[in-house]
Amino acid sequence: MTENKQGHESEPTAALRNSSLRVTKQRIAVLEAVCDHQHADTETVICAVRENLPEVSHQAVYDSLHTLTEVGLVRCIQPSGSVARYERRIGDNHHHLVCRSCNLIVDVDCTVGQAPCLTPSHDAGFVIEQAEVTFWGLCPECAASSPGRLAPASAV
Amino acid sequence: MTENKQGHESEPTAALRNSSLRVTKQRIAVLEAVCDHQHADTETVICAVRENLPEVSHQAVYDSLHTLTEVGLVRCIQPSGSVARYERRIGDNHHHLVCRSCNLIVDVDCTVGQAPCLTPSHDAGFVIEQAEVTFWGLCPECAASSPGRLAPASAV
DNA sequence: CCCGTTTTCTTGAATGAGTCAAGGAAGCGA
DNA sequence: TCGCTTCCTTGACTCATTCAAGAAAACGGG
Hints:
Two copies of one chain form a homodimer.
Chain A: H1 11-18, H2 25-36, E1 40-41, H3 42-52, H4 58-71, E2 75-77, E3 85-87, E4 95-99, E5 105-108, E6 127-138, H5 140-145
Parallel strand pairs in A: 4-6
Antiparallel strand pairs in A: 1-3, 2-3, 4-5
Helix pairs in contact in A: 2-3, 2-4, 3-4
The structure holds a DNA duplex.
């Protein structure tokens, strides 16, 4: 098992407790899976969790991911055309590079200063809470294998 | 009918022709529906199209939207947790305000200068093609009806 | 340390946006 | 008008995600 039983609690356990969530092996495994697989979709998380806990139901993973997202222990991102993906890096307002060809997702730090695009030219009266920036393009490998063109097939 | 038969072609017809697409009444109706319903989802587009063309199949609308998106006559956006939505305003790199409570979407112009967030601090070797910025928050009405709090229920 | 309450997990079925595929209809250049 | 090509209709299907009911586990109080 990946659990830490040496006196002090493992990081996931502490994180769950700090968020007033019950500590279950399923949730610990989900947290660890998200840590180990940056930007993993639910399918990937389920498989990763089952390496340690073969019996988990997909529903438990869905539930855990929702709960963890709600309390802010993981973050859910869903670039257009993609299923839900989860990441553990939270608290900072970082953004994402998404490859149009292979769907690779990479983190990037905030662009300009600290909260770059957090001030739209006019906010239409909205109370703005968060700015989410997604950069679309081609990752190094895909760019290399399709020289000259940006989008190899179609993509928008 | 909304079609223009007075000598020169209607705008949608011309747009289709300019994009080397066959001019069909279904595509014209889809283009007009997207114009008339900013940020409409596919369901809404289908209903709008059927007001003029009661017999259109949902598939024709899906196909048209895909084709129109491919040639750049409409743009498809998919904020997290939302189904695909389409808009006619294209060519400028404008962004969106999305209300977490009622899902209202409003356009905003580019924030800083012309291409605000188009330069991530490090691009991880990506060839960047487009930056997509989504501002999450509460629209004026929802903000008014839930004073003090930003997100009424849960949200991320 | 055990019990009871509450939350969470398992199981299995259902939902719904979007896609696939085959044949008929319409657009459009000759 | 003809014929080729593209597009539309019909209907079945996929698959991520959700719903629901009952069993199991967590954990605070006794």
